[in-house]
Amino acid sequence: MTGMQGKCFSYPQRIGEDRILRKGKQLVVCSKVDMGEWKVREIRKTVIYINDEAWCLVAKQFSAKEEVRYILDPWPDIASEIPGRIIRYDEEYVSARDNAVKKMRLEARIGPFLYLMSPLIGFLPSRIKAKIEANFGVSARSATLASIIVELLLCFIWVGAFLQIFANLIMLIPGSAKLLLALIVSVLIVFIDLVMRYNSYLREDQSPLGMLEWVWRKPVRNC
After folding, report:
1. What is this structure's pTM?
2. Domain check: are 121 and 208 in the same one?
3. Pair 20, 69: CB distance under 8 Å
4. CA–CA gap between residue 96 and residue 173 (Å, rounded)
5. Count of domains for the chain
6. Best CA proximity match to 49, nearest among 23, 86, 96
7. Predicted pLDDT of residue 189
8. Position 29 in a domain
9. Are 65 and 126 within one domain?
10. Torsion of CA 42, 96, 7, 46, to 10 degrees
11. Which domain holds residue 73?
12. Dihedral pair phi/psi, residue 208, rounded to 5°
């Protein structure tokens, strides 16, 4: 592996919000992002390709401007120098890194609220829960289990309250028997929904069924 490719590149350069400066034989990458995978190592150094040139990190400095400066030396032209990993620092790399940072920051802001709302999230269709898990880290399976428990508790409360009401009114209001029948049917539907969704959870579906989703859609299965 050779350190320089014989090409001449002009500096400073910008890649996204990052700046690349040249200081003598060194390059300085200035970024507002602390890139954890850029580590100073004595052995098995990380080779960083910039404009098809090979570099290695020799220093990492944190400035008062909330900026991190990565000091790079040309990759040593030594046959025995074996890289630990390879990074190609380009537009694609910076874009992927910035998107990951935005996702982490968004998850940090919204994540706690979504965790509190997880019992309600569990009622949502499986595909929506899978997207929420992918974007915000809220487990679709845990949210579904919480929603099943909530649904079961509400079902018992609902049945107890309305049975008492209808027991008092059935002799007083004509047609109340039909309303009681409608209540029984609705409760049966809820219990069937509980069984179907809990079965989806026990099958270890990646994103178990949402409320009444078993009527029209299959769950998202593990790959």
Report:
1. 0.60
2. yes
3. no
4. 66
5. 2
6. 86
7. 87
8. yes
9. no
10. 10
11. 13-96
12. -60, 165
